[in-house]
């Protein structure tokens, strides 16, 4: 689960990490008062969407002004004006995809004077099963690009959970960033705070890009991106309250209501599969035969007819879907339940694209009979390879 920058900064502030003063604004009329509560002489107006690269982003609509989703203003009036231009408009960045995201909130901040920009992140490193720090002198940049072109400018190490965070971890980062004197102590303190926060709040990712050295010589978190482990959010009421469903894919949101493991993707073949491993294998084999999956969907082991019906409806509601592959290996999941769900869903929403069904395992004969006795137009498949070949052929001709 992701949260907005202004929410992440409030959390940072509550842990004592240095961030600028700021106000979130939902309606244009509030912008001037909000900006007026800060002294200036510089204000920063920032579009709040769950995607990075806002500074270099572009608005779709005319009237949003020229620059991207992070703008500097030199007066209260100018700041309010920039906020008005952004609210309600659609910002497209490298991370939003071509559709972009509507800006429903802007954050007006007390602008900082920057002397240096750094990159800092904490993440769960699955390789070492530890929390890792990633730091770089190349702040404000796309870290993937830095990793590609100048990997020597990135420092990365993990923290042994047996010892936890130690001052030497912070010093390693401070020296890498070229900090001096009191800044080193500040860095050691800040890294410890971030590590503590990361663990206490069950984060998956915390990215401060840029972490800056201000013109006054202090460290400050100028941007903040936080992701939380969805499986642990139930332990943190304060975090779950920060969820902004308007930022989520409507199909994924609908799927989460039915407890379906669904992730929307860019391809043309909708998949309904049971089991995460089989779902991955199904996506792989679709790619192998030259097409792209439109989603990942694991209906799970104990899916009911209603759940399967909803899953099928979500798949067919995606206009990108040009064909559907149902691939079920019935172990705990029964093939007849899947068949009933598919037939019920087709009756309800109709079937406008080719449908390939591969059923195997528990109650497979009953499942096949349900489909054969319905008037659903199905292409039957014998195994995974056959299913993938048939759906790709049906879609690509
Ligand atoms: P992103 O583009 O979505 O990553 O948004 P950021 O919050 O990282 O802002 C993009 C860039 O705007 C930063 O790298 C800074 O160069 C600049 N910026 C953001 N806040 C301030 C500020 O308070 N003062 C100044 N001078 N520049 C800022
Ligand atoms: Mn940033």
Automatic annotation (TrEMBL):
Species lineage: Bacteria, Pseudomonadati, Pseudomonadota, Alphaproteobacteria, Rhodobacterales
Gene Ontology BP, a term: tricarboxylic acid cycle
Keywords for this protein: ATP-binding, Ligase, Magnesium, Metal-binding, Nucleotide-binding, Tricarboxylic acid cycle
InterPro entries listed in its UniProt record: ATP-grasp (IPR011761), ATP-grasp_succ-CoA_synth-type (IPR013650), ATP_grasp_subdomain_1 (IPR013815), Succ-CoA_synthase_bsu_CS (IPR017866), SUCC_ACL_C (IPR005811), Succ_CoA_ligase-like_bsu (IPR005809), Succinyl-CoA_synth-like (IPR016102)
An MF annotation (GO) of this entry: malate-CoA ligase activity
Gene3D superfamilies attached to this UniProt entry: ATP-grasp fold, A domain, ATP-grasp fold, B domain, Succinyl-CoA synthetase domains
Superkingdom of the organism of origin: Bacteria
PROSITE patterns named among the record's database cross-references: ATP_GRASP (PS50975), SUCCINYL_COA_LIG_3 (PS01217)
Name of the protein in question: Succinate--CoA ligase [ADP-forming] subunit beta
GO cellular component: cytosol; succinate-CoA ligase complex
Function: Succinyl-CoA synthetase functions in the citric acid cycle (TCA), coupling the hydrolysis of succinyl-CoA to the synthesis of either ATP or GTP and thus represents the only step of substrate-level phosphorylation in the TCA. The beta subunit provides nucleotide specificity of the enzyme and binds the substrate succinate, while the binding sites for coenzyme A and phosphate are found in the alpha subunit.
Binding residues for Mg(2+): 209, 223
E.C. designation(s): 6.2.1.5
Pathway named in the protein's UniProt entry: Carbohydrate metabolism; tricarboxylic acid cycle; succinate from succinyl-CoA (ligase route): step 1/1; One-carbon metabolism; formaldehyde assimilation via serine pathway
Family stated for the protein in its record: Belongs to the succinate/malate CoA ligase beta subunit family.
Ligand binding (substrate): 274, 331-333
Enzyme class (EC, first level): ligase
Cofactor note: Binds 1 Mg(2+) ion per subunit.
Organism annotation: Roseovarius albus
